[in-house]
Amino acid sequence: xxxxxxxxxxxxxxxxxxxxxxxxxxxxxxxxxxxxxxxxxxxxxxxxxxxxxxxxxxxxxxxxxxxxxxxxxxxxxxxxxxxxxxxxxxxxxxxxxxxxxxxxxxxxxxxxxxxxxxxxxxxxxxxxxxxxxxxxxxxxxxxxxxxxxxxxxxxxxxxxxxxxxxxxxxxxxxxxxxxxxxxxxxxxxxxxxxxxxxxxxxxxxxxxxxxxxxxxxxxxxxxxxxxxxx
Length: 230
What we know:
By secondary structure, the protein is an alpha/beta fold. The chain has helices at 10-14, 33-36, 39-44, 46-61, 67-75, 91-94, 156-164, 215-228, and strands at 3-8, 80-85, 102-104, 107-114, 117-123, 136-137, 140-146, 168-172, 193-197, 209-211. A hairpin with a 2-residue loop joins strand 6 and strand 7 (140-146).
């Protein structure tokens, strides 16, 4: 089977009702992003950062995977699928994509990690998912398992390797301006088919198939097209 790699961004989850950075309303509008999503912001005011991610978890509990997430799961029947996502939600997992086939570039909302040992990562239960600077798990104070601005992206190298092995790369719902993730397209091998699904697509090389549609509509177009070539 062909290797089919998805690079997903905020646009794929927006149709489930999850706010993006660029929304005119919603969670992000209340905050300066550097106060709640940066290493400096966490050092200055960890309580604010914990509460911000508590709010995002509460929002996540109220939404469901949409048709775009389901299409990716269905394509696992015909392709070797891997999902590289910039999103910290768990909607790909909830749609049925196994966790070991998903790379979360920017961390995971439903996980925290020890402040004194980044390799100690703990999954939060939906019924007990709120944290604070006083939260202790297994003897450790914890922080959101999120890659803050000003921090390295530890999963970037594995993601680049997976992109380099793709026969088909599908980029969905991303502005293509957030680096280093936006640079992953450059690791696609010569001859790989590349699709870009976004209602407001950024400029890309002419060899890329651009589908200027929302994720739910555009991914169905991609799925129909690549299945025809099987």
